[in-house]
């Protein structure tokens, strides 16, 4: 190969490298620079969690049905605690020139400064799933609409259903989500309110940070320390799966009731088998779609931030399945 051919080959390799994308693990690639369609970036938490992979699938399907209306870039983090990576994704999407960001923040406070910068850069920002902290939003002097369910009401409904199967004075335990997340805080409050109304005692409440394996370890410890526990309330279905394994290991299947939140496929099967009493369905396949539609409305109308939009959350039991 002569020098001229080597130079041409090197230039071609550099060109291909510059055009590749590492920020779009799933979903359609970003639109070309000369495309007039709005570009929406969906930034989620861990795609290893079935709830968020379902959310991604719903968003991708919606974009395919509205391909003439907008382009979609789907992003997620590997670990729900990887806040720095989610902040980086926001910055990368702004730098790539997206028109809107629809985000399920891994933390209610830590993402606000990056989202303020995105908004100041002219990007429409819509908050889904986990509500951003109102005090931090006020400190950053920014208004970001929330599109999502009332997590406290949903958890209260699940807790009330469980309480109806228990007796006054019974003992239960709670597996919490990440404590800096607003949805985790609200679900905890909903569970607590339901138990208080029914006169049921919460003997232990710990965070398992949304993770199944950690929930398994913590639930096992709870059952050992408090053998009188009659039920475990898990703030998401991944943790409920961990609780199922812990109850089985403790030899207490059929004795300890479990409830969750999210209505993932594995929990639906567990409900049918009687291993889980109930969960809450916040319609994960449509949650991102609700956010995308709100973002497109704001982009197309060139309007100020829209009002919050409350989306449905429903009780799921063996009867309803």
From TrEMBL:
Residues 40-302 form the Periplasmic binding protein domain. InterPro entries: Bact_Solute-Bind_Prot2 (IPR050555), Peripla_BP_I (IPR028082), SBP_2_dom (IPR025997). Its main location: other. Keywords: Signal. Residues 1-23 form the signal peptide. It holds the Pfam family Peripla_BP_4. CDD domains: PBP1_ABC_sugar_binding-like. It is found in: Cell envelope. It comes from the Bacteria. The keyword Signal applies. Belongs to the bacterial solute-binding protein 2 family. This is Ribose import binding protein RbsB.
């Amino acid at each position: 190969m002569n020098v001229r051919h080597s130079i041409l080959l090197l230039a071609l390799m550099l060109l291909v490298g510059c055009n590749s994308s590492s920020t779009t693990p799933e979903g359609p690639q970003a639109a070309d620079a000369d495309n007039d369609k709005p570009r929406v970036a969906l930034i989620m938490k861990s795609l290893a969690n079935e709830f968020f992979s379902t959310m991604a699938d719903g968003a991708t399907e919606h974009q395919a049905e509205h391909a003439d209306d907008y382009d979609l870039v789907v992003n997620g983090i590997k670990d729900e605690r990887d806040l720095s990576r989610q902040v980086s994704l926001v910055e990368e999407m702004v730098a790539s020139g997206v028109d809107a960001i629809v985000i399920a923040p891994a933390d209610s406070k830590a993402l606000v400064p990056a989202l303020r910068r995105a908004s100041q850069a002219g990007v429409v920002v819509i908050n889904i799933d986990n509500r951003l902290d109102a005090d931090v939003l006020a400190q950053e002097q920014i208004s970001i609409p929330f599109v999502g369910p009332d997590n406290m009401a949903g958890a209260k409904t699940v807790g009330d259903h469980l309480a109806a199967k228990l007796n006054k004075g019974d003992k239960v335990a709670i597996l919490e989500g990440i404590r800096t997340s607003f949805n985790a805080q609200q679900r905890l409050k909903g569970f607590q309110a339901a138990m208080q109304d029914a006169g049921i005692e919460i003997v232990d409440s710990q965070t398992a940070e949304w993770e199944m394996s950690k929930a398994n370890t913590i639930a096992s410890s709870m059952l050992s320390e408090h053998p009188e526990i009659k039920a475990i309330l898990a703030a998401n279905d991944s943790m409920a799966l961990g609780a199922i394994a812990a109850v089985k290991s403790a030899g207490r299947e059929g004795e300890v009731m479990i409830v969750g939140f999210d209505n993932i496929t594995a929990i639906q099967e567990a409900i049918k088998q009687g291993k889980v009493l109930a969960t809450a369905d916040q319609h994960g396949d449509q949650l991102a779609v609700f956010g995308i539609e709100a973002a497109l409305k704001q982009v197309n109308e060139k309007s100020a931030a829209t009002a919050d939009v409350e989306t449905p959350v429903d009780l799921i039991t063996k009867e309803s399945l």
